[in-house]
Specification:
Largest sheet: 2 strands, antiparallel
Strand content: under 5%
Oligomer: single chain
Structural class: mainly alpha
Number of helices: 18
Number of strands: 2
Radius of gyration: 22 Å
Helix content: over 70%
């Protein structure tokens, strides 16, 4: 197949702008990942006050979190597949644009219906990280790819650690709409920077988009995650929850059957069922569960009233600052993760990360009364999460063809999301079951928190075992050849520019 004729560069045109764009590719993509995580986190400090501010019930307000979760879970694999087909930069820019539009809608309205719709639009940003990782694979040489992918994977934790104290400060000292105006401005800047600094990848997998597969996956995931996220409120044995789980099983089974027979499936299930890919997805689900319990439990524990005997009674701002060292650690340890993956392979890095997460929960069980020990334990868990999350996309990149990296990483992020949703439900169930009244209000006991830590630590050990069972990595020569082929396609397409 012939390539389009190159457009000659006008005489005297400087090459400084393209070189500057190349240098800014990694920072721009990383800032997009951080912004996505910030955007998902900023609503958390608002939740206690939103019923009063929006004149809505607490149950309705909770949908501002649920809508983002559901939309992100559905759109991540869909937009990943669209990126492989139509261009990763184009789809990435669209996802950031939807996130920004949602932020503007939140800034302009106090109607709960509009706010829930806006938060659903922001769920599209969950695809930012897998799309960015795929762009890095296409654009960077192998010697730079590992550290860049590790940094990109860490942006989720970095943004979450930054978003909580930032949002708390804005909510405490300014009108709550100000926070969304700020994120709208940052989102618009991110869209412009991505379009200017990131080159479109020449690696595509053309074909007809699988609309039926998209609808089937969306329906199945909505039923599954809605049941998981609302089980505590509606009752795990209620007809609604049981009906949702039954519908999820039936729809996803039919979807699996359809995907195996589709000429151009949304998700290549034959690739997913290979041990190197499938076990990586299992490890992602388990790691997502183990990681998310840290943020959930730490925030509640340090804010618990002192009358409980263990609580510290901290404000939401102070709580955010307690989680900040974990975000800084994720930024500092991402290069270490890349070096371990280069020397020992990403499955060793993943197993090590899961083991470190388990050690962090052991620290939490040993002492959850002193603030410095709480921060230490949370930071150790964040360190392990950095190692694990940085290794997961590298495992996927080494196991799938270049033309399917966005969709495969999208599925991997989806598995993390499902793990986080299940973690949220499991932790809530444990804490509700182990609570006692303090001042007439049910408050989780310290024993309940310790059980949640033990549960998350045990899941981390299972994730470690899953990582060690992943077959060995492809020899580095294959990776180098793939990198040369990808860069060759890019350079040939841009030759003469």
């Amino acid at each position: 197949m012939g390539h389009p004729a190159p457009i000659p560069q006008p005489p005297g045109t400087s090459t400084a702008a393209p070189r500057l764009r190349d240098r800014l590719t990694i920072p721009v993509l990383a800032s997009g990942g951080i912004l996505m995580a910030v955007m998902q986190t900023v609503v958390v400090p608002l939740l206690p006050d939103l019923p009063r501010l929006t004149h809505a019930s607490a149950a309705a307000v909770s949908w501002m979190v649920t809508a983002t979760l559901l939309a992100g879970a559905v759109l991540t694999p869909v937009l990943g597949r669209a990126g492989d087909m139509y261009g990763k930069r184009r789809v990435l820019t669209a996802a950031l644009g939807l996130m920004t539009v949602g932020s503007v809608m939140c800034a302009l309205s106090a109607d709960i219906g509009v706010l829930i719709t806006a938060r659903a639009l922001q769920g599209a940003a969950a695809s930012v990280v897998p799309l960015s990782i795929s762009i890095l694979r296409d654009e960077l040489p192998p010697e730079r790819r590992g550290s860049a992918v590790a940094l990109m994977s860490s942006t989720v934790g970095i943004g979450a650690a930054l978003g909580l104290p930032l949002a708390a400060l804005v909510v405490q000292y300014a009108d709550w709409h100000t926070m969304f105006w700020l994120t709208s401005a940052l989102g618009a800047l991110g869209v412009a920077a991505t379009w200017w600094a990131v080159r479109e990848s020449p690696v595509r997998e053309p074909g007809r988009f699988d609309v039926l597969g998209t609808l089937g996956l969306a329906t199945g995931l909505v039923c599954l995650l809605l049941g998981v996220s609302q089980g505590g409120q509606w009752g795990w044995g209620s007809p609604r929850i049981l009906g949702l789980f039954l519908a999820a099983v039936v729809v996803l089974a039919l979807w699996w059957w359809q995907q195996l027979r589709a000429e151009r499936p949304l998700v290549d299930l034959r690739l997913v069922t290979r041990p190197r890919v499938g076990l990586s997805h299992v490890a992602a689900l388990l790691t997502g569960f183990a990681f998310y319990a840290n943020s959930l439990v730490t925030a509640q524990l340090v804010q618990a009233p002192k009358a409980t005997g263990y609580g510290l009674g901290l404000s939401i701002v102070a709580t955010g600052l307690c989680l900040l060292p974990g975000g800084v650690t994720m930024l500092l340890f991402s290069p270490l993760s890349a070096r371990i993956s280069t020397a020992r392979g990403p499955r060793v890095t993943l197993a090590l990360g899961a083991a470190v997460i388990a050690c962090g929960y052991a620290v939490r069980i040993a002492d959850s009364r002193d603030l410095w020990m709480i921060i230490l334990g949370a930071t150790v868990v964040a360190t392990g999460t950095t190692l694990a999350y940085s290794a997961l996309p590298t495992l996927i990149l080494r196991a799938v063809p270049a033309a399917q990296t966005a969709s495969a990483n999208g599925v991997n992020v989806l598995m993390r999301t499902i793990g986080q949703a299940v973690s949220s439900a499991a932790v809530a169930a444990v804490l509700v079951h182990h609570s006692s009244p303090v001042g007439g209000v049910p408050v989780p006991t310290l024993h309940g928190y310790l059980l949640a830590f033990a549960m998350a630590g045990a899941i981390a050990l299972v994730a470690c075992a899953a990582a060690l069972s992943i077959p060995g990595d492809e020899p580095s020569g294959g990776t180098r050849r793939a990198g040369r082929a990808t860069r060759g396609a890019r350079d040939e397409a841009m030759e003469g520019a």
